[in-house]
From TrEMBL:
Protein name: Metal-dependent hydrolase
Organism: Sphingobacterium alkalisoli
Keywords (A to Z) from UniProt: Hydrolase
Residues forming coiled coils: none
NCBIfam families given in the database record: PRK00685.1
Length: 227
């Protein structure tokens, strides 16, 4: 398995040949100006919530790829309003687990807010746990530190994708605590550097995680990482 990082919280997983894209925000990210959005063709697009910096390229990428879009119920309704065919939209909710060709996906809690780009209620924000064979990967989405994360501690997570930029989500200090809560040593940082309020010192972040016995990966935009 591998990932390609496209900036902000946009990550494309390659689950043994199936491409799964999370939170597509590329076109309007000045840090991702060298990424050709038209070249991205996932089989699935997962949305953690409806804020613009997580869904801006959903419609374009879905049309180019005919991907199935997965989201919480109210955000999924917004997806359908963008012209995505109903049969290409999968809605579910907290406690739900999808069984898909590449594995299973469980929706989990995230502490944040949620509205869609048109200003309507988007349901709750969420995260996902992907069960791929014997591997388990947690994508936290936009979230503050929350005790709900401790419910994941017995899943034996292989990797956790955690926001580290602060201001709108938890910062690097809280992310270290989150790694402890979910009992995962391998972390990929997301939701940082895109805007001035969430700019970080990467060296400081790496050192902080190392001192806590954690591995922090900060792949460059367009960079790949083997999981």
């Amino acid at each position: 398995m591998s990932i390609t990082y496209y900036g902000q919280s946009c990550v494309e997983f390659n689950f043994n040949g199936t491409k799964v894209l999370l939170d597509p925000f590329i076109t309007y990210n000045t840090l991702a100006k060298n990424i050709d959005v038209s070249s991205i063709h996932p089989e699935y697009i997962f949305l953690s919530h409806g804020h613009q910096d997580h869904v801006a390229d959903m419609e374009l990428i879905q049309k180019n790829s005919n991907a199935t879009v997965v989201a919480i119920v109210e955000t999924a309704e917004w997806v359908r309003k963008q012209g995505v065919a109903p049969e290409k939209v999968v809605e579910f909710n907290f406690g739900g687990t999808l069984t898909l060709p590449f594995g299973k996906v469980k929706m989990v809690y995230a502490l944040h807010t949620n509205s869609t780009p048109d200003g309507n209620y988007g349901g709750f924000p969420c995260g996902y746990v992907f069960f791929i064979g014997d591997r388990r990967i947690y994508f936290a989405g936009d979230t503050a530190l929350t005790l709900e994360m401790k419910l994941l501690s017995d899943l034996h997570l292989d990797w956790a994708f955690l926001p580290i930029g602060g201001h709108y989500t938890m910062d690097m200090i809280d992310a270290v605590k989150a790694a402890e809560f979910v009992n995962c040593k391998n972390i990929v940082g997301i939701h940082y550097d895109t805007f001035p309020p969430i700019a970080i010192n990467k060296k400081e972040a790496t050192t902080l995680f190392q001192k806590s016995g954690l591995r922090l990966e900060l792949p460059p935009i367009g960079g790949k990482l083997i999981l």
